[in-house]
Amino acid sequence: MTKTRLLQLSGLAAIVSGLLLILLDIAFIAFFGDQPEKVSAATTTWLILLDLSILAAFLGLLGLTGLYARQVEETGRWGLAAFAIASLGMVMNIGFLWGGAFIVPALATAAPGFLDQVAEAPPQSVAAGFISTFVLFTLGWVLFGAVSLKSKVFPAAPLWLLIAGAVLGLVSRIAGLGIPGVLFGVGLAWLGWRLWKE
């Protein structure tokens, strides 16, 4: 398989990931709204949406790899650092989603009070895990967007959407406002399309 074909496939992965993120954001709001997690997690819909979220994150990681490979020479050491941090944030996010798909539903049935307690005042270790995951994810994508802007390999508009979406996602999680993946998803799908088109 040629390098061009690999880049095209990673572009396609980014497109599908971005579109899934947009649809999943809308689906989570439509199906669950402000419903407590202990109620939402006990449904089959929750499992389906979380499984699709894991797929979206995995495809996003493949897309990130292709986006980095396309501009590896232009971004230099800063590009490598941004790629490494964003990749680590993505991997940790996949772990977070896996827990949401397979552990949280079991807790919703066996210990719904514990889920309420974790939502209101998580233990220090859980809070540290959540914070490090979301901060690394955000920091990695913001740095990746910044070095990509400087390299000028990709257009600026989708990179700014990616940066804004990552920051908004962190702010939203801290404020408990939900999962705003629309801006990030649009930016990722747009960049994937540019990579695939090349």
Could you characterize what this model shows?
It is a single chain. With 198 residues, this protein is an all-alpha fold. It has helices spanning 3-32, 37-40, 44-70, 72-102, 104-110, 112-120, 124-151, 156-175, 182-197. The longest helix has 31 residues, at 72-102. The radius of gyration is 17 Å and the shape is elongated. The relative contact order is 0.18. The mean pLDDT is 91.
Give start-end ranges of low-pLDDT stretches.
none
* Helix/strand class: mainly alpha
Helix content: over 70%
Biggest sheet descriptor: none
Number of strands: 0
Radius of gyration: 17 Å
Features:
198 residues; mainly alpha
Characterize this entry briefly.
The protein contains nine helices and no strands. With 198 residues, it is mainly α.
Protein topology:
Layout: H1 3-32, H2 37-40, H3 44-70, H4 72-102, H5 104-110, H6 112-120, H7 124-151, H8 156-175, H9 182-197
Helix pairs in contact: 1-3, 1-9, 3-4, 3-9, 4-7, 5-6, 7-8, 8-9
